[in-house]
Amino acid sequence: MTRPSLIGLTVLCAALATAGWLAILAMTASPVTAVRSNATDLSKEPKHPVSDPMWERSKALGGRPAPAFALGDTRGGTQTLATLAKNGPVAIVFTKDGCPCSMESQPFFNGLAQAFTGRATFLGVIDSDLRVATLYQENFKVPYAMALAGDQRVFADYDAKRSVYVTLVAKGGQIVRQWPGYSKTMLKELNQALADETGQPPAKLDVAMAPDAMTSGCAFEKSTPNGV
């Protein structure tokens, strides 16, 4: 039996390779086209829209005593509402590691926290362990304390079903207002509310990159199935 020549083997391999690539292109052409045609521009609508029930439940908290808590933080200390609200208002930012909305909104909360340093206190409450919470604080340059939610009871106490809920507590411990997400308007309202509570002018805050429509974050594990 005659051995195939080197040239013949080369031609055969080239032909097989070409056929293989053509087959791959044929298999992938349709899915790629379908994905592009069905793609949604997420910049024009919230990832997690805030529903009417979410708004209603958040508004109902205004004027009520803020639930007490004592939570360990990333610095080895304990954060208690009684201590935090003794000298001024407290903005509680409910945070979830890995949630795009938490990450996208974080710079705005950082800016407000720095602008009201010494007059208002910001506190992040995150549903993770110490290691992850510490990494989140470092990676996103969070200038305020991050408390660990532990058994997550604090989420239920504040009716915070998802991340990016923000609860503003007045000096003394009464809830001023809760927002079930964030947007350009929400950030302006929080800024003004902090100014009203502290007696200083609103901070200069660029909200151009914030969403137009209210958007909440990812549901916490112990929230209701639909997060509302």
Can you walk me through this structure?
With 228 residues, this protein is of the alpha/beta class. It has two domains: 1-39; 52-198, Glutaredoxin. It is 40% helix and 14% strand. It has seven helices and seven strands. It has helices spanning 6-38, 52-59, 81-84, 100-115, 130-139, 153-157, 184-198; strands at 70-72, 78-80, 90-95, 121-126, 145-148, 166-169, 175-179. Strands 5-4-3-6-7 form a five-stranded mixed sheet. A two-stranded antiparallel ribbon has the order 1-2. It is globular. Residues 1-43 and 223-228 have low confidence and may be disordered.
Give the count of structural domains: 2
- Measured on Cα atoms, how large is the radius of gyration? 25 Å
Helicity level, as a percent range? 25-40%
Order of helices and strands: HHEEHEHEHEHEEH
Decide which structural class fits the backbone: alpha/beta
Instruction: Please tell me the CATH architecture of the largest domain by its name.
Output: 3-Layer(aba) Sandwich
Distance between the termini: 76 Å
Overall residue-averaged pLDDT value:
83
As a percent range, the share of strand residues is 5-15%
Number of strands: 7
Regions with little confidence, pLDDT below 50 for 5+ residues: 1-43, 223-228
CATH topology of the largest domain: Glutaredoxin
